[in-house]
Amino acid sequence: MSIQTPKNHQECAVCCQPFFNHHTAIHFTLLPSGGVQGEIVSTEKVQGYQGVMQGGTITTLHDTAMTHCLFSRDVCAMTAQLDVRFIKPIPLNTLIQVQAHCVKNKRRVYLLQSSIYVDGQCYSRADAKFIQQINDA
Q: In what order do the strands lie in the sheet with 109-118?
């Protein structure tokens, strides 16, 4: 099942356009656990050091996955805090899988976690706090 992008997010430069490569935008599907999963092959467009993804784009991938996890719950929220753990350099031109899950929510605050995998191994993890927008659209 695909995740619906809210109207106020349909022009996002990361989610709605080819950001991680030159050809495809990332799409997320709902997992049985209630989280989301997306896959993308990143190219030189997001290269940092030779042959690997730049750290800011890795952080962006985590943020994107967690945002779509909230969209799957019909929640529009903005990132308030994001902590990323870089475990291994993420190679370019390789299928990358990202998963995000909502760990906890109270009132308008959501705590989420995200992991990036290459060939089944975790290359990066992130924890974030999101604050729901008052004018949820």
A: 28-30, 36-41, 95-106, 109-118, 121-132, 77-86
- CA 84 from centre of chain: 12
Q: What residues have CB less than 8 Å from 55, skipping those under 6 apart?
A: 48, 84, 86
DSSP state of 27: -
Average pLDDT over residues 48-70: 97
Share of the chain above pLDDT 70, in %: 96
C-beta neighbour count of 130 within 10 angstroms: 25
Query: What's the predicted TM-score (pTM) here?
Result: 0.94
